[in-house]
Amino acid sequence: MVRIHTISLGRVKSKIYAILIIIFTVLILSKFIVPSSRSAKNNLENDVPIFTQQLEEHQLDSELYKKVLVETIPYVDGHSKDGHTVDNFFIGIFAFITDIHWNNFTTVLEEVIPLARYMNNNVVQYTQNVIEVDGVFNEYTGNKEVIQQNDEDYYQIEAEDEDTFEDPFASSQIRYTKTQLRSIDFLQRNLYNFEGDLKLTYADIPAVDLINRDISLKKQSNKPQILIFHTHSQEHFADSDPNQLDDGVIGLGETLAKILHEEYGIGVLHNKGQYDVVQGKLMRDGSYERMEPAIRKILQQNPSIEVIIDLHRDGIEKGKLVTKVNGKPTAKIMLVNGICKTMKNGKLTDLTSLPNPYLKDNLAFSLQMQLKANELYPGLMRKIYIKPYRYSLHMLPKSLLVEVGANTNTVEEARNAMAPLAKILCEVLKVK
Questions:
Q1: Which of 134, 178, 220, 225 is the most buried (most CB within 10 A)?
Q2: CA atoms within 13 A on the CB side of 415
Q3: Buried b (16+ CB within 10 A) or exposed e, 103-118
């Protein structure tokens, strides 16, 4: 089954223009017609007194007068035999342009509510397409408008060559001690990158507790359990077709959804909302704020969803994030966590404006994914990136932000990473 929810604001916008034109026209006419009619009446009385006197002396037959009006100007007669009225005339024109029938309140709601939503969304213009994979996966190609990128999100990470180390989790025979996992230096050296001057302690990343948390998912038939979306929908790759959204991260989302459903039997929703596009232009600022209401609505409508994946690709100035998996060139993957804390006067301070009740659950999810990936696909993962932000991880306990490759990778390399990512995910979720 495929469910497609579309919010198209172009029609609403055209109606706004039509309504404004009607109002403007009425105001203009009221300025000119009323004064001119009064002036004509004054001129007629002042300049043609004899004619006026003759009209008063020779009164017209009322029936004849009405007949003339009915025959020549049928809409002037408020209640003629044909049932035409001036009100009906203007109501008909208004309904023809706006689809609002004032004698049918339902049509008023149908048009006014989208209009209110349009104004309330800060003039955000995007088309939201949601695909539910349930039964047979069907592709749905939504808005094809592609925005040329003019900026990138760069993570402040050391060069990949400097980030190379002898990974203790690089084989299926993983061995580590609780003492090592309790060392923040060990964690940062082997598993994590902290942004800038961010200084975390073991209390912030209690690895022993995190790896023991239950992240399992019990499969439900005919219900979506994973939601994939893209806060930055316009992220593409080195050889992407600029006219095809499916050549970027949105295409990766479709590939991942298809694998999760067809190979692992999980119901998936793929949201194609373009939250980084405002009035046809790329605007990264505010993307997460624009994304959240739509994602929360999907979660409310689909309470069976337990996992959300915000799928991105990184941006780097040089180099290429690639490895080989099963002989195929594969883009490297990086998991990102927002710690909701920042350094202030040398002290780690909570960001009270960005609360996340699921912070430890998020950290457990990403750490277990990292360890499982290092076990199954040594060299595939970059270190988990920790930033003093929140991203899109505060809506569900099992939330991931995944960076697949970077702007220097090819589409093929990025797509090749989806099968390993799906396998890692299902291993951690213990999907059977």
A1: 225
A2: 13
A3: eeeeeeeebeebbeeb
Contact 405, 331 (CB under 8 A): yes
Same domain? 38 vs 60: yes
Strand partners, 228: 270, 309
**Tokens 């994590």 — which residue?**
192
% of the chain surpassing 90 pLDDT? 53
Q: Are 393 and 292 in contact (CB under 8 A)?
A: no
Token couple for 246: 């499916």
**Does 254 lie in the same domain as 369?**
yes
Q: What domain range includes position 252?
A: 130-429
Q: Number of folded domains in the chain?
A: 2
Structure tokens at 274: 């373009």
The pLDDT of 47-57, averaged and rounded, is 50
pTM equals: 0.64
125 in any annotated domain: no
CB 385 within 8 A of CB 157: yes
Same domain, 141 and 61: no
